[in-house]
Protein backbone atom coordinates (compact mmCIF):
# COMPACT_ATOMS: atom_id res chain seq x y z
CA UNK A 1 0.00 0.00 0.00
CA UNK A 2 1.19 3.48 -0.81
CA UNK A 3 1.73 5.87 2.07
CA UNK A 4 0.23 9.34 2.14
CA UNK A 5 3.71 10.84 1.62
CA UNK A 6 4.34 8.62 -1.42
CA UNK A 7 0.99 9.61 -2.91
CA UNK A 8 1.82 13.29 -2.41
CA UNK A 9 5.23 12.79 -4.07
CA UNK A 10 3.58 11.00 -7.00
CA UNK A 11 1.13 13.89 -7.43
CA UNK A 12 3.97 16.42 -7.29
CA UNK A 13 5.88 14.43 -9.91
CA UNK A 14 2.75 14.23 -12.10
CA UNK A 15 2.44 18.03 -12.01
CA UNK A 16 6.09 18.45 -12.99
CA UNK A 17 5.71 15.93 -15.81
CA UNK A 18 2.55 17.71 -17.01
CA UNK A 19 4.49 20.98 -17.34
CA UNK A 20 7.26 19.16 -19.22
CA UNK A 21 4.75 17.40 -21.49
CA UNK A 22 2.89 20.61 -22.32
CA UNK A 23 6.20 22.32 -23.11
CA UNK A 24 7.24 19.37 -25.28
CA UNK A 25 3.92 19.47 -27.14
CA UNK A 26 4.31 23.18 -27.83
CA UNK A 27 7.86 22.94 -29.18
CA UNK A 28 7.50 19.64 -31.05
CA UNK A 29 3.88 19.66 -32.19
CA UNK A 30 3.27 16.19 -30.71
CA UNK A 31 -0.25 15.11 -29.85
CA UNK A 32 -1.65 14.64 -26.35
CA UNK A 33 -1.85 10.89 -26.93
CA UNK A 34 1.77 10.59 -28.08
CA UNK A 35 3.18 12.70 -25.26
CA UNK A 36 1.16 11.09 -22.48
CA UNK A 37 2.10 7.62 -23.73
CA UNK A 38 5.81 8.58 -23.86
CA UNK A 39 5.81 10.02 -20.35
CA UNK A 40 3.84 7.22 -18.69
CA UNK A 41 5.72 4.43 -20.47
CA UNK A 42 9.26 5.82 -20.52
CA UNK A 43 9.68 8.49 -17.84
CA UNK A 44 7.57 7.59 -14.82
CA UNK A 45 9.98 5.73 -12.53
CA UNK A 46 12.56 5.13 -15.27
CA UNK A 47 16.27 4.75 -14.52
CA UNK A 48 18.94 6.14 -16.81
CA UNK A 49 22.66 6.75 -16.53
CA UNK A 50 21.90 10.38 -15.67
CA UNK A 51 19.66 9.33 -12.77
CA UNK A 52 16.17 8.20 -11.94
CA UNK A 53 12.84 9.76 -12.76
CA UNK A 54 10.30 9.88 -9.97
CA UNK A 55 7.20 7.75 -10.16
CA UNK A 56 4.21 9.91 -11.07
CA UNK A 57 0.46 9.64 -10.62
CA UNK A 58 -0.60 8.70 -14.19
CA UNK A 59 -4.26 9.67 -13.70
CA UNK A 60 -3.45 13.15 -12.42
CA UNK A 61 -0.84 13.57 -15.16
CA UNK A 62 -3.27 12.61 -17.94
CA UNK A 63 -6.02 14.80 -16.49
CA UNK A 64 -3.74 17.83 -16.24
CA UNK A 65 -2.44 17.48 -19.80
CA UNK A 66 -5.83 16.73 -21.34
CA UNK A 67 -7.62 19.50 -19.44
CA UNK A 68 -4.84 21.99 -20.24
CA UNK A 69 -5.25 21.23 -23.94
CA UNK A 70 -9.06 21.03 -23.93
CA UNK A 71 -9.49 24.21 -21.88
CA UNK A 72 -6.43 26.09 -23.20
CA UNK A 73 -8.37 29.10 -24.53
CA UNK A 74 -10.14 29.62 -21.19
CA UNK A 75 -6.92 29.10 -19.21
CA UNK A 76 -4.92 31.43 -21.47
CA UNK A 77 -7.59 34.15 -21.15
CA UNK A 78 -7.54 33.76 -17.38
CA UNK A 79 -3.74 33.96 -17.41
CA UNK A 80 -3.82 37.06 -19.63
CA UNK A 81 -6.13 38.77 -17.14
CA UNK A 82 -3.59 38.04 -14.39
CA UNK A 83 -0.66 39.39 -16.44
CA UNK A 84 0.22 42.98 -17.11
CA UNK A 85 -1.77 44.29 -20.07
CA UNK A 86 1.29 44.74 -22.27
CA UNK A 87 2.65 41.28 -21.49
CA UNK A 88 0.28 38.67 -22.97
CA UNK A 89 0.80 34.96 -22.39
CA UNK A 90 2.35 34.40 -25.82
CA UNK A 91 5.29 36.64 -24.80
CA UNK A 92 6.29 34.74 -21.67
CA UNK A 93 8.79 31.90 -21.37
CA UNK A 94 7.32 28.68 -22.84
CA UNK A 95 8.10 26.72 -19.66
CA UNK A 96 6.17 29.22 -17.56
CA UNK A 97 3.37 29.22 -20.14
CA UNK A 98 3.17 25.41 -19.84
CA UNK A 99 3.19 25.76 -16.05
CA UNK A 100 0.31 28.25 -16.12
CA UNK A 101 -1.67 25.93 -18.40
CA UNK A 102 -1.17 22.90 -16.15
CA UNK A 103 -1.97 24.91 -13.01
CA UNK A 104 -4.95 26.53 -14.74
CA UNK A 105 -6.27 23.09 -15.67
CA UNK A 106 -6.08 21.99 -12.06
CA UNK A 107 -7.63 25.23 -10.78
CA UNK A 108 -10.54 25.23 -13.21
CA UNK A 109 -11.27 21.53 -13.78
CA UNK A 110 -10.35 19.74 -10.54
CA UNK A 111 -11.24 19.91 -6.87
CA UNK A 112 -7.73 20.50 -5.55
CA UNK A 113 -7.62 23.35 -3.01
CA UNK A 114 -6.19 26.47 -4.69
CA UNK A 115 -3.46 26.92 -2.08
CA UNK A 116 -2.18 23.40 -2.82
CA UNK A 117 -2.12 24.15 -6.56
CA UNK A 118 -0.28 27.43 -6.01
CA UNK A 119 2.32 25.89 -3.68
CA UNK A 120 2.95 22.91 -5.94
CA UNK A 121 3.43 24.98 -9.09
CA UNK A 122 5.56 27.62 -7.35
CA UNK A 123 7.83 24.73 -6.29
CA UNK A 124 7.98 23.61 -9.93
CA UNK A 125 8.91 27.15 -10.98
CA UNK A 126 11.75 27.06 -8.41
CA UNK A 127 12.93 23.74 -9.85
CA UNK A 128 13.09 25.17 -13.38
CA UNK A 129 14.40 28.60 -12.38
CA UNK A 130 16.39 28.17 -9.13
CA UNK A 131 18.31 31.44 -9.51
CA UNK A 132 15.56 33.69 -10.82
CA UNK A 133 12.57 35.66 -9.62
CA UNK A 134 10.18 33.55 -11.66
CA UNK A 135 8.75 31.79 -8.60
CA UNK A 136 7.45 35.11 -7.24
CA UNK A 137 5.97 35.96 -10.62
CA UNK A 138 4.34 32.52 -10.82
CA UNK A 139 2.97 32.90 -7.29
CA UNK A 140 1.38 36.27 -8.08
CA UNK A 141 -0.20 35.12 -11.36
CA UNK A 142 -1.49 31.85 -9.89
CA UNK A 143 -2.95 33.67 -6.88
CA UNK A 144 -4.89 35.93 -9.26
CA UNK A 145 -6.03 32.95 -11.35
CA UNK A 146 -7.07 30.97 -8.27
CA UNK A 147 -9.12 33.87 -6.93
CA UNK A 148 -10.91 34.08 -10.27
CA UNK A 149 -11.43 30.32 -10.63
CA UNK A 150 -12.45 29.58 -7.04
CA UNK A 151 -13.35 32.82 -5.26
CA UNK A 152 -15.13 30.96 -2.46
CA UNK A 153 -11.88 29.28 -1.39
CA UNK A 154 -10.40 32.58 -0.17
From TrEMBL:
Residues 13-147 form the NusB/RsmB/TIM44 domain. GO terms for molecular function: RNA binding. GO terms for biological process: DNA-templated transcription termination; transcription antitermination. The keyword Nucleotidyltransferase does not apply. Keywords: RNA-binding, Transcription, Transcription antitermination, Transcription regulation. InterPro entries: NusB-like_sf (IPR035926), NusB_fam (IPR011605), NusB_RsmB_TIM44 (IPR006027). Gene3D superfamilies: NusB-like. One of its GO terms (cellular component) is cytosol. Belongs to the NusB family. Involved in transcription antitermination. Required for transcription of ribosomal RNA (rRNA) genes. Binds specifically to the boxA antiterminator sequence of the ribosomal RNA (rrn) operons. PANTHER family: ANTITERMINATION NUSB DOMAIN-CONTAINING PROTEIN, N UTILIZATION SUBSTANCE PROTEIN B-RELATED. This is Transcription antitermination protein NusB. It comes from Pseudogemmobacter humi.
Amino acid sequence: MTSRDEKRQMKSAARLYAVQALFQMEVSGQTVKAVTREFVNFRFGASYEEGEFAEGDPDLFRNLVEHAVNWQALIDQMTDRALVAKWPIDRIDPVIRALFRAAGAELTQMDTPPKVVINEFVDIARAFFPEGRESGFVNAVLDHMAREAKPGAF
